[in-house]
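Hi C.,

You asked whether I'd gotten around to modeling the 405-residue construct. I have! Everything is below, sequence then structure, no commentary in between.
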Amino acid sequence: MENDSKIEGPNTKAIQSNGQVKKQSIGLHATSSFRKKYWALTPASKPFLYKMMMKTPIASLAAAKVWVRSSTPCVFGRSIYENLRIGNSDQSIVSSNLSSYHCDRMLVDFVEKEDGSVILTPSTDEGHKTISTSTKEIAKYRNIPLGRAMDCPTLTQQAIDDDKHDRRRRPFVSLAVVGMVVENDDSNDGTDNLSLLCTRRPSYMRSFPGAFVFPGGNVDADDESLEHALTREIFEETGLHVAEDSWKLECLWESIFPTQLPTLVTPENNSTNNNIDGGIKAHHLVCYFSGRPDKKRKKDISLKLCEEEVDGAVWMSRQNIQDILTSTKRITMSNRETIAPDEEMRGQQITLHAPNSNTTIPNSSIPLSDLTGIYPRLNNGRFCGIAQGSLFALEEFIRNISMRI
């Protein structure tokens, strides 16, 4: 391994290799504030972070929206979860006893900054979620569940090679928000009669085509907060008005598409081939919130689905949710990739609401089994199922409801 000598100044680094010393400017590759954080790190932490800084232009650093421990931007194609886990001892991380059969899960502290970025830090004590704010912070949450697929594509050799040879599609992980819109009657707790809105993505979408997901989208640069971005996205996709102050952060998910990387690049051509069609195409940190439609706008409660982004939507009852969770676990644990529509769900149907702009397609009924199993799952020759991030959020939402009553 190359022997790196100490840093000599704020704009140079002396690298000693094979008896030769050469200086390399870092002034064009790191912002002043980022360099200050760099000097404060321990010597053992500097070599890795320095290499990252050397590959990251100043414009890209300004665009980084997801950070770990306020000093490390989350790079596209590198696991956020691993970055959090490896940086701490096993004793200091709250991994939580509530593990999942289909994903890895840990608790993190989550800070939303005024500049639109978020910071993740492993939680070091078990306690209930709390919210606090301070200067330059919009919100701070403790002990928020973070999940990722056990077979996360970022851990594959192809993803590692794509990162090594700079074949990433983007410099950094993107930030997205998703809303679980809740409807229920006027009973005391409303938990038995609640309904959750779930949408189906059109088959022509670049990521997760045909999957059932909770509605949402990317956070834009002009969004004032995560809640502002989510309120905008929900209205654009569903026509529903949800007050910004009603959103409650439920969990986080590290989303990768495709969910499995095809073996298209061989070791022989990997070092020279710049074709990235077989690699990771999308990498997001998704923030899942729950919220209710604005009671002041009850007249606007009807769905007005955006045909470009949604080709159908369903309202899942509490019983529907329980059946979906039970059946999905049974399918996943038995390693079955295909299932007949009525085999697990006993012929249950659910109403699929069509986009309002498409008057040729009325509301119809579909098998509830279309929502079961982790996407992509084959059902009679077509892909269906619920996206794994949405499944994780659904589990956390139901668990949190049980804790509240």
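If it helps when you're writing up: The mean pLDDT is 77.

Thanks,
B.
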